[in-house]
Amino acid sequence: MKPEEDVLVSSSAMEPYSGAWTVEEAAHLLRRSLFGPSYDQIKTAADQGLDATITQLLETIPTFTFPRTYEADEPIAAYGTTWVNSVYPSDSTASFNTEKTRRRSLEAWTMERLNGQAFSLQEKMCLFWQNHFAAEPCLDARATYDYFRLIQNHALGNFATFVKEMTVNPNMLIFLNGDENSRFSPNENYARELLELFTIGKGNHVGNGDYTNYTEFDISSGSRILTGWRVEGVRSSTATKVTSFFEPWHHDTGDKTLSFRFGNQVISDGQDQEYKTYIDLILANKETARFICRKLYRWFVSSEISTDVESNVIEEMATLMISSDYEVKPVLEALLKSAHFYETVHRGAIIKNPLEFIFGMINSTKSTPSFDLATTYGIYKELFIFGDSLGMEYAQPPNVGGWTAYYQAPIYSKNWVNSSYMKLRIALASIMTVFNGVEVGGKAFKLDFLSFLDGLSVPQDANQVIEDIVMVFCPNGLEQAQKDALKMMMLDSLPEFEWTQQYADYKVDPQNTTLSEPIRQRMANVLEQVFLLLEFQTN
């Protein structure tokens, strides 16, 4: 497995990439941008070029799906309809059970989104922001849905607007006790995380209560600025939405003086707009842009940020973010078009997170469960559980800091491959290939090996099939001996011309399982071995 390396970076690292644009560069870009690119997507990206591909990846998808009712325990929203604007039962037991079914529906929906990803960075950025604004689901699935929708809406948008809306989002208010923050009893939870995790970052601890970028005094003042916000409608049997609102009686109207880290500025009473003034002040400090850009860099390029990277990459990204008024797209465009991003040392330098691992198998083989809603959502719920078992429960990072793989030095993404997780990855690879797949209600979801094979460049040529497989799944390729072993498995020790003839016979009558099943089984065997390789574990 390729280690995360620290390399010298030239001052021109953020200059646009001008090297060769082949399937290897296109595959690197798409592995970092999507949850498992298919061969077709990689080939299209290679053919249309870097600029056109980045333009398409940065498009915001305006229409979204909705989580749907798929279990009989939902008493309000009918089967197949969405419950996001439905009330809860008035009976407490029924309300509790309804919440459980809606939570399961919501979890299945998150996996449906990853499986149905468009050719866009949007879903990858949704997971990025889920990690950044880490918040547990609250006790009303409608509020949790709105939290996810907020992330979707701003995934490729303006960070300044995003953090302001997140500050008064009902799910976030509940999670960090912002709905309890009052002039009579200030609560510092959100004020602390707003500085430490969501905007400017802590910096080095340089003195008593002084963290370089802010002080404990700023947390105290921030909590007073944020007083007065409340949440209503949780599990209501009459209200169809959970909403936040400003209660002037609970707001601290006094002047709030910040520390010397913010120039001892004073924020006067601004009622329900006061928190925006405070956030604008935080964003005016360039260190906020640097902090966000470091997180973007670790997500898309490498966990390691050397002094050279800090000076020649992060600084340029932050300058661009400030000049773009905190628009995210220009920063991502510059990074993903940069010479630095395509340096070979970065290929395969990040270990796949659990969802990249799971959907790297599913999406790259163009596989989708296509059963009735109850079965399909049941399968997506199982995939959600797989992700949780591998260390990444989509809806619930382990703490407000997000998943440790994105901040815990020096191992970072190696957190995903401890001995327990690797055993589970190996088991899941076999389940999805040579075993029964994901079984729900007597039906099984397995990878679509034949569609994957049919979509390769020359599926009747055994050598080219292996080359295409390696290109799709292995960022740094394989040794010739490894490729030869995979080919022998695919040929079942027969001459190459036998594969060519068998594939031709299958294509003449693809519904004939006598012809298709041997080919499908051989592809399953080959892909199982690929998914067990250390080379597949990286992006």
What does this structure look like?
It is a single chain. By secondary structure, the protein is mainly alpha-helical. Among the domains are: 159-284, no CATH class; 354-537, no CATH class. Helix content is 49%, strand content 3%. The chain is built from 22 helices and six strands. A two-stranded antiparallel ribbon has the order 1-2. Strands 3-4 form a two-stranded antiparallel sheet. The chain is globular and about 85 Å long. Residues 1-7 have low confidence and may be disordered.
List keywords for this structure.
two-stranded antiparallel ribbon; 539 residues; mainly alpha; two-stranded antiparallel sheet
Low-confidence stretches: 1-7
Helix content: 40-55%
Compute the number of strand runs.
Answer: 6
- Overall, the morphology is globular
Between the first and last Cα atoms, what is the distance in angstroms? 11 Å
In spatial order, strands of the major sheet run 1-2
Main pleated sheet: 2 strands, antiparallel
Structural class: mainly alpha
Run of helices and strands:
HHHHHHHHHHEEEEHHHHHHHEEHHHHH
Helix count equals 22
Relative strand content: under 5%
Radius of gyration: 25 Å
Q: Could you give a short description of this structure?
A:
By secondary structure, the protein is mostly helical.
